[in-house]
Design goal:
alpha/beta; Rossmann fold; 15% strand; globular
């Protein structure tokens, strides 16, 4: 098969990029031809044979002229449609696999694929992997950044709440553009052209199914993960949090619980806007942002980790990563987190934002060594799909012959 991966970033930038790179490698190993389309960037690591990419759009910088034209370009990109056509004519893909495309590439790429397919008579399926809630929520999180509450107002069909609530970066202008972008493409019914929508959790599937255009097209497939080699590592006496230090991640709730448990040592690994709140707390050690082997050993040696998120998490890699290293997780009962943790069997759950419940669960798992050991063994036995296993399932959707 000829497969075109479409994603706005073609350089290492986040989870969606890791996803397309690893999937692409696996599909190529099977003999499929895989190319990529997105923005040009000095750090680009994948591409296409005709070297056709859109200009890099940086919404946080750029010239004054560029900023004036951004509002139009974020709704429809004539450049993306034109450049994509060059790739389509050369590659002649059997499948176009969309990932993150809104604002920089825009849904104009969907129309470009359908137009090329219709004019050439070459059938091309369009698969979309939803890495967030962008298609039903203009700020992509279903979370009001001003009230710090989860929000489903836009899931009812109107996107005006985004403008009223200044949901995008607290900016009225940006929020209005987000509302216009979402409304324009809803009226144009562009998403009816998607053949399959891959959701990384059943929770996300439920939210996307709130829009009639997606109902019947969505499927839930948890993210894949690389299985690590087994290592005999002795546990040490600390509780681990690793990730972003921000309010929606539940950091404030975790800090309150930690303060109430001065006899328990906590290690925080990450960075973010609330980092200052960690200072001066005797039982919290902030080791900063960690990656690679250093992070792996922090996770492996922890008695258990905590994932206290307070927004609609999808399929958090941090939970899966902790479990695959044999470290059980105390997770918030929210979003897709509950799909990764069996309460009392592979980890513990608490009501998101509930300091008392979190505190009680931490104290319980810290004191009950037998329970902790049992959860460690159960965690490491969990089997998540590898890229190869995930890729095999995906190929069935690519070919249009998947059966539940």
């Amino acid at each position: 098969m000829n497969i075109l991966m479409i994603n706005k970033f073609l350089h290492p930038n986040g989870g969606s990029e890791t996803y397309i790179f690893k999937l692409g490698e696996y599909l190529q190993s099977l003999g499929h031809r895989v190319e990529y389309f997105g923005m040009e960037h000095e750090g680009r690591v994948v591409g296409n044979r005709v070297e056709a990419y859109t200009e890099d759009m940086d919404f946080h910088g750029g010239s004054k002229l560029a900023k004036i034209t951004y509002p139009v370009k974020t709704i429809y990109s004539a450049e993306a449609a034109k450049k994509l056509r060059l790739v389509l004519e050369d590659l002649k893909p059997d499948v176009c696999h969309l990932n993150n495309f809104n604002y920089q590439l825009t849904p104009s790429v969907i129309l470009a694929v359908k137009k090329w397919s219709r004019q050439t008579g070459h059938p091309c399926r369009i698969i979309y992997t939803a890495h967030d809630y962008q298609l039903v929520c203009p700020n992509h999180m279903c979370h009001d950044p001003n009230t710090h509450q989860n929000c489903e107002k836009c899931l009812k069909g109107s996107f005006l709440a985004c403008t009223k609530g200044r949901c995008i970066h607290g900016s009225l202008a940006k929020s209005f553009i987000g509302t216009m972008e979402a409304t324009t493409w809803k009226w144009a019914k562009v998403y009816r052209h998607l053949d399959t929508v891959i959701c990384c959790s059943s929770f996300m599937k439920e939210k996307l199914d709130s829009a009639p255009v997606f109902r019947g097209k969505t499927v839930a497939m948890h993210n894949f993960i690389s299985r690590p080699e087994k290592k005999a590592v002795e546990k040490e006496d600390y509780v681990l949090y690793f990730g972003r230090y921000s309010r929606e991640k539940g950091i404030e709730t975790l800090i309150k619980a930690a303060k109430a448990l001065p006899h328990i040592s906590f290690v925080f690994a990450g960075t973010g806007p609330l980092e200052d709140q960690l200072a001066g707390i005797d039982n919290i050690r902030n080791v900063g942002f960690q990656t690679g082997e250093a992070l792996e050993m922090l996770i492996r040696k922890a008695r258990f980790s905590v994932y206290p998120s307070e927004w609609y998490e999808n399929c958090p890699f941090s939970v899966m990563e902790s479990q695959m290293y044999g470290t059980p997780v105390i997770g918030a009962r929210i979003g897709g987190v509950v799909e990764l943790i069996r309460d009392g069997e592979t980890g513990l759950l608490f009501d998101s934002g509930n300091v008392r419940q979190l505190q009680e669960n931490i104290a319980r798992l810290w004191q009950d060594r037998e329970l902790n050991e049992r959860l460690c063994k159960a965690s490491i036995q969990l089997q998540f799909d590898t890229a190869e296993e995930y890729g095999q399932k995906l190929l069935a959707y690519y070919k249009g012959n998947y059966h539940e």
